[in-house]
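Re: the request from the purification team.
They wanted to know what the chain is likely to look like in 3D before they choose a buffer screen. I agreed to run a prediction and write the result into the notebook, where they can find it.
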Amino acid sequence: MSPTTRCIKPRIGVSAVSSPLEVGANRALPSAQDLARNLEAAGCEIVFCDPIGSPDQAVTAGRRWAETRVDAIALAAACWFEDYLILDLLEECRRPLLLRPLPGMETGALCGCQQATAFLKALDHPYLSVFGPMNDPAVLAQSIPFCQGAALQTRLRRSRIGIAGHHLTGMTHTAPHEFLLKKSFGTRVVWLDLPGLLQQAKDIPTAPLEAQWQVLSRKAGQCDVTSAEGRDSLQVYQALRKQVLQQGLDAVTVGCYPQLMGRVCLAASLLADDGIPFACEGDVHGALGLLMLQLLSGEPGHSTDWLDPVDEASVVFTHCGSGSWSLAEKPETIRLASVRLMGQGVCSLFTAKPGPVTLVNITPQPDAYLCGILEGIAEPTEMVFPGNPVRVRFGQPVAKLIPWIHETGLGHHWMIGYGHHARALRAWAKLAGASLRVVGAETPT
């Protein structure tokens, strides 16, 4: 199976600001063009506007960027400029602002940005100002996570996560606080009728699914389940996929434990390859974490529990076997089997592929959401748990991480995505506001 996911592409409005009287004003256009080229080469989509030196030009640019729905605005400061240019611009397009003052002893570009950030801070408008030569890779490295964070914010504010059934009894932290979730992340929860969904699945004719099951089961290295179980799993997948399309869902979760264990696991694997993250056990927050990581990485992620340490710096994470087959370390070893504990349904059992990973843990508090972030390296592992075990090595001792998790109050579900995305997630969190608190980001040494 080849996933159809792709990572977000930040859409950035680019221009330059200057005051015509000042030294360096003549470099406004070339500096804006350089900024646009650098951001585009780093993966951004650019909406370019001519340099801004008057209130009318600020309004014109702002209106164009509002119409094209940019995620953020990036301005090269060629020299000193009047701060009201930015104020007039933001009245037309209130998006996060990236300022790039250019070096120059006589130009006053850095002074102009300092006076601009003074009122941006006072107005609580999100911004980032980075100083240095336009083609300095280090400056660009600071800018890109900000752009990615802004794009993530835009995408999440329009996202919908479906939940079939309810969060699980005994897993209180998975219950979504819908007001706070909308305020913190922008996500809207869509409640799906589980009995109706299961009836829809039952009503799907099984005969056309037999050929699909035979093709799918032959792709696995081993199949230990019956065709009847395979067809049932495909019926559930088809019913869920129909709901995703009808409701415009970006991610989904089902309250599966214990009655539906195994019956929804293959659907989770297949939906992941359709670009729809699926979190286990009715966890809306887990589905949201998977969506965030998928948007940043461009590929499916793992829905997992934190299990036992393997050594002083690595831990095994896994769940029952609901991962995308694209995440298998050795696709030829994928085994289709019934779920542990209940002995029903179809799970895809495989060990996870290695590589750099980011772990996200979203847990509600009475007044805010916690978003725990860790970075590590996924390493090869054995099938130490019947599911999709992921062994992650961290840059600090597990003996320090475990007390930190308990003291911070993070829940037991960890979503894992490939690549290191902590910087982009921290940039996004600053845009999300006070109702979101990010904790524990680390980069492995």
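For the purification team: The first helix runs from residue 28 to 41.
Please add any questions underneath this entry.
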